[in-house]
Amino acid sequence: MSTAELASSYAALILADDGVEITADKLQSLIKAANVTDVEPIWTSLFAKALEGKDVKDMLANVGSGGGAAAAGGPSAGGAAAAGGADEPAAEEKVEEKEESDDDMGFGLFD
């Protein structure tokens, strides 16, 4: 990770910890206060746009929670309820097809 990325990351964490909105100007101010001179304004702009509207503390608390599976199931249930899902049949689970192995192709790694 470059110095610019690291400085922007730390500045964003400081702002989030203080409960302050993360903006490019505030990130740049913190970086200048820390006497880090080689950070171009594009980095602070990128970090501010990436973190806009996000709860950084919540993201840090859920780093290893595996929340992706719950998010995948949520929209399908919500979409069916919003569209009057009482008359529609329940969604069937997709059965994953077994991947072909190299043994079935008739050749091996060293043939």
Automatic annotation (TrEMBL):
InterPro entries: P1/P2_N_sf, Ribosomal_P1/P2. GO terms for cellular component: cytosolic large ribosomal subunit. It comes from the Eukaryota. Keywords: Ribonucleoprotein, Ribosomal protein. Residues 66-77 have a biased composition (Gly residues). It holds the Pfam family Ribosomal_60s. Residues 66-111 are annotated as: Disordered. One of its GO terms (molecular function) is ribonucleoprotein complex binding. P1 and P2 exist as dimers at the large ribosomal subunit. Belongs to the eukaryotic ribosomal protein P1/P2 family. This is Large ribosomal subunit protein P1. It comes from Anthostomella pinea.
